[in-house]
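Usage example:
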Amino acid sequence: MHRLLMLSLCAALVSTVALAQAPTGKVTVITSFAKDVTDPVKKAFEAAAPGVTLEVQNRNTNAGVKYLEETKANNQVDLFWASAPDAFEVLKGKGLLQKYAPKASGIPEKIGQFPINDPAGFYFGFAASGYGIMWNERYAKANKLPDPKEWQDLAKPVYYDHVSIAAPSRSGTTHLTIEAVLQGEGWAKGWGTVKAMAGNFRNITERSFGVPEAVNSGQVGYGIVIDFFAFSAQASGFPVKFIYPTVTTIVPANVGIVANAPNKAAAEAFVEFLLSPAGQQVLFEPGIRRLPVNPDIYAKAPADYPNPFKDPRLNSMIKFDVAKSEARNDVVDVLFDQLISFQLEPLKAATKAIHEADAALAKKDNAQARALVAQARELIAAMPVDEATASAKETTAAFTGGKQKGARQAELEQQWAAFAKQHYAQAQAKAEEALKLAK
Amino acid sequence: MGGPHVSLALAAPRARARRTATPGQITLALGIAAFLALFLVWPAATVIYVAFTERGGGAFTLVNFVDFFRTDLFLRSFWNSFYVSAMAVAGASILALPLAYITSRFAFRGTVLIQTLGFLPLIMPPFVGAVAMQLFFGRNGSANLLLDDWFGFKIAFMEGLNGVIFVQSIHYFPFILINLSAALRNIDGAMEEAAQNLGSSGFRLFRRIVFPLAMPGYIAGASLVFVKVFDDLATPLLLNVKDMLAPQAYLRVTSIGIADPMGYVISVVLIVASVAAMALSALATRGIDYSTVQRGGGGLARRRLRPYESALAYLTVALILLLVLAPHVGLLLLSFSTVWSFSPLPDGYTTAHYARIFGDSSLYIKNTLIYASMAGLIDVVLGTAIAYLVLRTRLIGRDALDWAASAALAVPGIVLGIGYLRAFYGVKLWDGTPLAALWIVIVLALAIRRLPYALRACYAALQQISVSLEEAAENLGATKLRTVRRIVTPLMMGGILAGFVTSFATAAVELSATLMLVQSNSDAPLAYGLYVLMQSAAGRGPGAALGVIAVVLVAVCTILSHAVIERGRAMPPAGH
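Running the assembly step on the lines above writes:
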C-alpha cells in the first residue's frame, strides 16, 4: 500500500513537472485517418499547444503496426492513432505502447457495453463509432429497392448482387462488425447470417474506404460500414443514408503513446487535447463526424447528430467481449476469406439458386422442394470448425508465424476452402432440384 | 524471316562483338552488381527468405512450395494471372500498333501530340484513377447508365478477368507504343528504299521489312506489358478480382499472412515467372541482328496520305484516343464536380477542390519532380550500362545483371518497402536518425522499381546499332570510353529518352513502396498526398484535382523530352 502511494505521488509529481514545462518540438503520429480527419485536429491542437508541431504519417492500420514493429530498435514515432481496438491490442501485446493515465475529466468508463479506455492503461478511446448499413438513395430508387433495417434484411433476394463489404482481414472495423454479429447471435447462427448476406454480395473490397467509395459513386447500392463513413459522405452532399441494426456494437477509436517515444511530453499533450472539450468538439467537423466520448459535448452537436449516450437503441447493444475477439481474431479473418471472399462465385451461384427456388415455391408450394431448400441453406451455413476449435491453441497457432511446430496456415486454408467449395456445390444442386420440383 | 536485314546480319556477325573485357568494363560490372545487391537483392532477401524456412525450426525447406501447388486457390490464381497477362499483351498491341504505324510512317499532323496523349494512360494516379474509371465504365458508370437508358442493356466492361484485361490493355499499351515508336524511328530509311526498289510497298512492306526491323522495340514493350500485368496488383484489386497471383501475395503479406511463408512463396513464384518471361523475350531476339549501319538519315520516309486515307487515319486515332483517355476525362470532370453519384455527369461544378489543395501541392510537386527525375536518371545510366555490358562484352555473368535488374519488376512494392526498413533502419547516421528515414532512400526504391523499364528501352536501342560503327571509331584511334561517349550514347539517345520518360512517369505515380518509406509529410510525393486524401468522402474532389496536377505535370515533362528527341533528330549529327 505504502509503495503504491509513493508511486502515485511520484506519478503526480512527474505530471505536474510535465505540465509546468510546456511541451515543445515535433510530435510524430502514425494514423490510418484521412486528411479530412487529421487536418482539423492538427490545426486545433497546434493552436492549443503553441510550440508543438504535429507530424502526421498516414499509413493503413496494418502497415502502421508493421512499421512500428520493424522500426522499434530506433523508434522515431510518438503516437499511434487509429480506429480498430484490436490493432492496439496487438501493439500492446508486442510491448510497443507505453502506459499513461489521462487527466481529462467528464469521460465515462463505458460507452454502450464497451470500456472506453484500455483497462490496462495503454490506449484511450477518443471517439466512438457504430457499424451499420449505408446505401445510395438514387441507386435504391432506380432499382426499386426497400430500405433495410437489420443484417438479415440484406440476405433477402431483392438485395442479390447489390451489397458490398470490406474483407475483415483487411479492415479492422469490418472485422469488428463480423465479430459483433458472431457474438450477438452465437457462432453457428452468426456465421449463418453472415454467409446468407454474403450470398448477396456484389464484391468484397480490400480496404475499408472501398465500400463507402463504391456506394457514394453509385457503383454498389448497399455497404456494410462504420457510421462516420456515411455521416461524412452526407456532410459532403452525397445522396446516402445510414442505419444501425439492432445487433451491432459501439466501439471506441483510440490513441496510444508508443514505447520509447522521442517526445513523450508532447505525446501526452496530444492525448490530453483529444480528450479535452476542445478536442472532442473538433469531431463534429463535416469531414470527421465521429461520436465524442464526452457526453456533455453533445449539447453543441449539429442537428440530428446521433448520441450514443441517449439513444436507447445504441445502449441496448450487445456486450462485446474483447478477449474472445482477440483470441480468435486471425481464425475469423481466414475463415471469412476462405469460405466467402475466395469462394464468392460458388457461394453466389448457390444463393441465386435458392432465391429462385424460393420464388417458385411462393407461387406453388411443394413440401419436398421446401425440405431441399432448407437442406441447401444448412449446407451453406455449415462451418468447418466449431467455436471451441476456432479459439483452440492448435488452430490459432497456425497463424502466428511458426515458433512452434504444428499445422501450417496453408494446409488449414486449403481444407477450409475445399470444405466450402464442396458444400456450396451441393447446396446449389439441392436448390436446383427444388426448383424443378416446384415448377 | 525474309528481308534484307538477314543479309545485313551476315555482314555483321555477332562474333565480332566478342572481345575480351577491359578492366574498365569489369569495374563497371562490379559496381552495378554491388548496387543491385545492396539495394535490391539484400533488402528483398531479408523478407523473402521466409519462403524457404520450415515452420517451428526455421530450417531450410521446400515444403512451402509444395503447399503452393497443393492449394487450389494459388493454382487458379497462377493460371488467371497467366491468361490475363497474355490477353493484355494482345489487347495492348491492338491499341498500340495503329498509333505507332500511323505516326511513324505518314506525314501526320500532331504526331507529338498523339505520342504524348497515347502515353498518358501510363500515368494513372493511384485510387483516383480507379474511381474515375468506375464512374465512366463501371456497372453504373456513365457509359452503362446511358446504354441502359437508350437501349436497355449494360456492358460489363469492368467485371472479372475480362475487366482486368480491358483496364490493363488501356493502362499499359503505352509500353508497346513508346518502345515500338522509338524502334521505328531508328530504322534505316535505306532498307525501306531498297525494298521499294525491289517492288515491295504498302502493308507488305510494313509486314516484311519495317516491322521485323522494329521487332526489338515491340518485344521490349510486349514483354514489359506481360510482366507488368503479371505482377500488377492495383488493377485487379480495384476491380475486386482477388484470385490472381500478385493480389494474393499482397493480401497475404499485408494482412492475414504477414507471418506466414505463403505470401513470400508467391513473391518468389512471381519473380521466377517474370525473369523467365524476360529471358524468353531476350531469347526471341537473340539469334537475329537488328542493327543497321546507316544513321542520321532521318529514319523512314513519311508518306503523304490521300484524303480518304487521311480520314481513316484520323478516325482510327480519334477512336483509340477516346477510349484510352476516357479515364483522364473522367478524372478531369471529377476534379471539377461537386457531387457525382449514379448519374452520367456530375450534379454541379466547382473549382473549390483546386483551391483546397493549392497550399499542399507545391511541396508534393517539388518532391515528386526531384524523386522521379533522380530515379529516372539513375535508371537510364544503369540501363545503358547493363545493356552495353550484356550486348557488347563477354563478361561472365553479364546476363545475371540483366535478370537481377528485371526481377525488380516482380518484387512486390510492399516487400521492397519492408525490406528497406529492415535493411536500412538499423543503420544510424551521425545524429542518430536512421538511414531509412532519408528521402534519398525513397529515390533508390523508386529507381530499383522502375529500372526494368529503362533497361528494356536501352537494350532495344543498343540492339539496333551496328557494332561496325563502334569498330570504325576504334580503328580511327578512339578509346572505348570515347567511343561510348561520342558514338554509342548519341545513337541510343532516342531509346534512352524513351526509357527515362517511362521510368520518370511511372515513378511519379508509384505508391506501394513509397507508402512504407515516407517518414514525414515534408518528404511526401504526390502519390502519397493522393492516398491521404482518398480515404474520405470529402477528399474525393481534392484527390482528383491532385491527380489532374500529377498527370499534367508528367505530360508536360513528356512533351519536353519528345521535343528534345525531335530536335536531336532535326540537327545533323556531329559525328557523321
